[in-house]
Amino acid sequence: WNMKNIIPRWSRIMSNDEKKDDVKKGLIGIVVDETTISKVMPDINSLTYRGYPVQDLCENCRFEEVAFLVWHGNLPNTLELKKFETEERENRRISINLTKIIEHMPKRSHPMDVARTAVSVMALEDKETSDNSPEANMRKALRIFAKIPTVLGAFYRIRKGKKIIKPKKNLTFAQNFFYMCFGKVPQKEIVQAFDVSLILYAEHGFNVSTFTARTITSSLSDMHGAVTGAIASLKGPLHGGANEKVMELMSKIKSPDKAKKWINNAIKNKEVIMGFGHRVYKSGDSRVPTMKKHFLKVAKIKKDKKLHKIYKILEEVMLKKKNIHPNMDFPSGPAYHLMGFDIDFFTPIFVVARITGWTAHIIEQHAANRLIRPLAKYKGEKHRKVVLLNQR
Using an 8 Å Cβ cutoff, are 337 and 328 in contact? Predict the structure, then answer.
């Protein structure tokens, strides 16, 4: 026995145990699994889907092509795209039962709660809900993807006291959503801006809602349940709800001449300014330049005199004083507003896009599953003895 050898070894063991007890709040920097779906590539500072930079996809593809890519790993050829679009359009209609449920929902309901409830109802109606095979999951993913816009379009009309508009098979995914909400399809530039926003929102790695979906899936729960949980996660203002908060912020500022004073006061008072900063991007959200370009196009078409100016002032001050760049929610919020959507519909539009990413991750999780079960560092009371009721 050599105590000189034993003590250093014990010291190293203690050091390792201490490392195990380190708490990484928010799982910052923790790699929990592998994925082939998307990645923010630092060398080009760009979000990529299956290796393709998103800005290139926005420039050359429609949302349907990108949805196919996220699910199947490759961009579709002409025949594959036609087949995919036909299947999506055939599945757009929702059941009479679900329609009636939506009709009876309180008009003051948040559309995110409507979307979450609708997916749960879809689970009750889908004959393949409990089938987690890759083939069944892909079919379910397509059905949820096709029906969610119809659900949201129906609620958009109902809460305004208007008649529900059924989906049209001869319209693209983006065109059809405008048609179901407003009864008409706007200018091609506005449709394109909307389509681009869907591409940019389609997928983004292990974000909060995607990780929620994968965690639910890891227990071998079903796809509808995982998507329902993801929607609940996305609703939060620190995730998907940020685009709503951005527009609320701009509405509060009201005019460009008040923007500089407002942002300076907010910085001075250390307020949280929604739409700025991102945990993943260090040199600015790679999606912003593309979305900003289309926001400014929409602003020009709509003859906007305020929002694009407020945007510019807030962006410049935040960069100058805090060196913090805007994120995707900053241009998308005012863009959706100018397109005519109510503020509380911004995050549901996010859902319409992100169904693709969520379901791709759900399928990927099933393919190489392991139960996600992290540990927690206990900081509560130490061991205590139970005192009988009459002695407490």
Answer: no
Q: Which of 308, 329, 361, 366 is catalytic?
A: 329
Distance in angstroms (rounded) separating the CA atoms of residues 330 and 178: 22
pLDDT in tens, 5-64: 333 333 344 344 445 568 888 888 888 899 999 999 887 888 999 999 999 999 999 999
Low-confidence ranges of the chain (pLDDT < 70): 1-21, 282
> 33, 113, 131, 239: which is the annotated catalytic residue?
239
What is the reported pLDDT for 7? Answer: 37
First vs last C-alpha separation in the chain: 52
Residues 6 or more apart whose CB falls under 8 angstroms from that of 17 comprise none
Instruction: Name the token pair of 108.
Output: 């003051």
Backbone angles phi, psi at 128, to 5 degrees: -105, 15
- Closest C-alpha to 315, from 263, 269, 268, 243: 263
Instruction: Report the alpha-carbon distance of residue 167 to residue 191 in Å, rounded.
Output: 16
* Residues 255, 306 contacting (CB under 8 angstroms): yes
329 is annotated as an active-site residue: yes
Q: Report the alpha-carbon distance of residue 244 to residue 344 in Å, rounded.
A: 6
> Under a CB-based contact definition with an 8 Å cutoff, are residues 240 and 297 in contact?
no
Instruction: Please state the separation of Cα 104 from the chain's center in Å.
Output: 27
Q: Residue 262 is encoded by which pair of tokens? A: 């407002």
Q: Is 239 a catalytic residue?
A: yes
* CA-angle at 131, arms to 125 and 136, nearest 5°: 90
Considering the candidates 204, 224, 278, 325, report the single residue annotated as catalytic.
278
> Strand pairing partners for 52?
49
Structure pTM? 0.90
Per-residue exposure over 334-370, b if at least 16 CB sit within 10 Å of its own CB, e if not:
bbbbbbebbbbbbbbbbbbbbbbbbbbbbbbbbeeee
Q: Are 105 and 156 in contact (CB under 8 A)?
A: no
